[in-house]
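Task: sequence design from structure.
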């Protein structure tokens, strides 16, 4: 399995409130994480960092996951636990009042991947069937699209596009959407914050992800394209590629 994590402050924001990474459990299985904090500096970055640290430390202590049911239980349990931690921190620290974070994470094994999400950070898959989004945004605009009140095209320019209806750490209880897919040789998962998905079209994402097996170049080009298109937000991504015969690649670039 090959993977890469990259995050970039973008061209406008003073701070980077995104966090993420790619980590192994005791059996060498992969957990890829992207969290996009909200609430301003020293709040949003606290929420995303707390979430990342808890999931990383928990995953590194975890033994082998054998099937999708085990994966789902692990993700539900640890989402509940970290949500309580973030929520309690926001209540106990005035400077963090109202903070929260989106979360998308993928538990990847040699045969399947289980993906969980809260908020509008996304996961896409590229495989022999093409390129598609696996997650549903928990946003006001997406609810309007699902209800047929606006078109997907109108949603791209809606003035309330960034309003979330669910995030981690903003209330006492939250559950992620979870799905499992077959993860075969040559398949690629792209996890990203909306700093990428709002600025780079589906066609551009697919084209760049398909263009090369050099994940360092692909990740760099995706971030550059988001910045070229304005870079108003922090930009964070993980790519996980199922190629069991190749050595792993893990590159972190935090700017």
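Answer:
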């Amino acid at each position: 399995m090959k993977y890469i994590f990259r995050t970039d402050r973008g061209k406008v924001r003073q701070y980077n409130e995104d966090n993420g990474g790619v980590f192994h459990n005791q059996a060498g299985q992969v957990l890829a994480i992207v969290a996009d904090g909200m609430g301003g500096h020293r709040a949003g970055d606290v929420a995303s960092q707390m979430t990342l640290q808890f999931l990383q430390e928990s995953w590194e202590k975890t033994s082998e996951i054998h099937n999708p049911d085990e994966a789902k239980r692990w993700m539900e349990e640890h989402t509940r636990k970290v949500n309580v931690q973030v929520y309690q921190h926001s209540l106990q620290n005035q400077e963090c009042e109202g903070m929260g974070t989106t979360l998308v994470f993928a538990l990847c094994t040699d045969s399947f991947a289980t993906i969980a999400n809260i908020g509008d950070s996304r996961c896409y898959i590229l495989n022999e069937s093409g390129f598609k989004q696996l997650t549903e945004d928990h946003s006001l605009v997406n609810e309007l699209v699902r209800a047929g009140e606006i078109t997907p095209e109108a949603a791209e320019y809606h003035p309330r596009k960034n309003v979330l209806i669910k995030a981690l750490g903003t209330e006492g209880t939250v559950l992620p959407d979870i799905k499992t897919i077959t993860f075969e040789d040559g398949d690629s998962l792209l996890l990203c914050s909306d700093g990428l998905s709002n600025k780079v079209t589906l066609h551009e994402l697919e084209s760049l992800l398909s263009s090369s097996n050099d994940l360092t170049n692909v990740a760099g080009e995706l971030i550059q394209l988001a910045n070229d298109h304005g870079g108003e937000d922090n930009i964070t991504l993980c790519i996980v590629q199922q190629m069991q015969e190749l050595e792993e690649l893990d590159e972190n670039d935090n700017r």
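The domain at 2-241 is CATH 3.60.40.10 (Phosphatase 2c; domain 1).
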